[in-house]
Amino acid sequence: MDAISYFPFFLSMLGIISLATSVILMSMNGDTLAVGEQNKGYYAPVLFISIILALWIGMRPVTSVFGDTINYAIIYRALDTSEFPSISFGSEWGWEIFTYLCKLNGLHVSTYFTIIAVLYTLTGLWAMKRFVPTSPFLGMLFLVGSAFFFSYGTNGLRNGLACNLTLLFMAYALEERYAKAALMAIIALSIHRSVMLPIVSTVVALTLVRNPFSALYIWIGSIICSLFFSSFFSSIVSLIGIDSRIDLYLSASENTLLTEAESGGFFRWDFLLYSALPIIYFLYINSKGVRDGWFNTLIITYLLSNSLWILLIRAAFSNRFAYLSWFLMPVIFVYPLCNMRAWANQNQAAGIILFLYISMSIIMCLLFFL
């Protein structure tokens, strides 16, 4: 398959499978998804499908059609294996060591990308299995059906893998398996330091900000602050120095060589509207009088992480900041369907929400990536 056909083929298959699943769910009565017991024991087929998907993504042509794939390939081919990478807190040593070992063992660049794709896909599926253990196929559809799943599997490789590891960190933290949670956090940070934002937001959600509406007020406040004091907060973030790439993107917003979609300098109301969808979803479920501790933590983490992005919304490549909260969307949308009795007919609701979610993702892809 040629490079140009990869993304349209992915969207087509995703649309067909999701539509079929939605129709099946909408034809069912009851709330077996919420009960969940009869959905157990179907993880193996989902694992098999996920591996096939990962191999297909990983063996893509090495070309600039897939964004930073070509840059990763250039770095990999030029890597000098005569010196082992240094390990320091300030470096993304996990990624450097992984790349070094692949090159040291003589792996072809396509094999290197395939291993990354398998890790990316299976860590996401592993996390989904912990959040929705009774419905792994539905969890996988929401994960793969995210508007940015393909992009971060072929373009933002490190960020995508680090975010999926962060999902695992969150799952283990919610299960109170803190040793495994800490391990996942360390590995995620060693791959991409930017995930410090959702990791810290999760810790805050579990300890300090336990009320989702408190986080919602912070989110609303961040919009007001961004509208009137954006440059002030950008300066503060640069001063803190969380990640050197942030300084680069903040300064790049003035670079006229960037495209309009990348250059920043203006308030992204379209991205803000997209970011508001999980919040609207939460408010609807909350209005039903349904409560769940895990779901509250997910929403609080999302709101806190998204708030920082809103403060930097005018920066170049602001969607890269936004992904540090957007990667939570698949879990936020699927978790209530499988764990909370929020609808009179849970199965039909799941079919409708899946259809709307995939449709929204495809529209986003068509608007911003094609």
Quick summary:
With about 375 residues, this protein is mostly helical.
Question: Main traits of this protein?
Answer:
370 residues, 19 helices, 73% helix
Can you give a write-up of this model?
The protein is mostly helical. The protein has 2 domains: 1-191, no CATH class; 194-342, no CATH class. Helices cover 73% and strands 0% of the residues. It has helices spanning 3-26, 32-35, 43-58, 69-78, 93-104, 109-131, 136-144, 149-154, 157-174, 178-191, 196-207, 212-240, 244-252, 260-263, 269-287, 293-311, 318-326, 329-339, 346-368. Helix 9 packs antiparallel against helix 10 (178-191). The radius of gyration is 20 Å and the shape is globular. The two termini are 18 Å apart. Residues 252-263 have low confidence and may be disordered.
Strand content: under 5%
Q: Mind summarizing the main beta sheet?
A: none
- Number of helices, where a helix is a run of at least 4 consecutive DSSP H or I residues: 19
Poorly predicted regions are 252-263
**Helix/strand order, N-terminal first:** HHHHHHHHHHHHHHHHHHH
Could you give the distance between the termini?
Answer: 18 Å
- Give the radius of gyration: 20 Å
Overall form: globular
**Average pLDDT score:** 86
Number of strands: 0
Task: Count structural domains.
Answer: 2
Q: How would you classify the helix and strand content by structural class?
A: mainly alpha
| Share of helical residues | over 70%
